[in-house]
Amino acid sequence: MSQSFHPISGGRTRSVVNLANPGGTAGVAYTFTAATAVPSGATAGYKNYGLNKNLHILIMNNDAAGCVFKIWGYHSFAEQWGLLDIIDPATGDNNVIEISVAKDIDEYTIVPIEGIERIAIQATTYAGGNSCTCYLGVNTI
Question: Which residues have a Cβ under 8 Å from the Cβ of 8 and sit 6 or more positions away?
């Protein structure tokens, strides 16, 4: 009797998977109507489905003014949340990733998140008025 071998990718995907609705096409991760707190605890934010490498962020700002967002990552080895940063190729400095979205603009950003278990978005500046809608997705390439 022979067994067939079926390779398993570990959940990684080339297509973008919606974190708020894995396997589905719709699913808003956040609707911001005010500034929000720093994430805390092992269940805050969204699980990085399959521990993919890239985070796709679409923020649709319908607010009365510009808004600013920060990206947080969680890993169980430390049981802590930390701000994501990125190296500036011009200076070599590490800078916290902040996404500024002007009013009535839809901003699409891709951020490397390889190895991060959970993701959360924090609204640090919010003028008030309408709302900002945030979609989160992940993929391998």
Answer: none
Structure tokens at 29: 């991760």
Whole-angstrom distance between the N-terminal and C-terminal Cα of the chain? 38
Calpha distance 127→31 (Å, rounded): 14
Show the domains of the chain with their CATH numbers.
Answer: 17-139 (2.60.120)
Q: What is the distance between the alpha carbons of residues 133 and 59, in angstroms, rounded to a whole number?
A: 6
Give residue-wise pLDDT tens across range 49-89: 888 999 999 999 987 788 999 999 999 999 999 999 988 88
6-15, 29-38, 68-77, 110-119: segment of lowest average pLDDT: 6-15
Distances (CA, A) of 103 to 30, 124, 127: 17, 15, 10
Residues 6 or more apart whose Cβ sits within 8 Å of residue 115: 51, 75
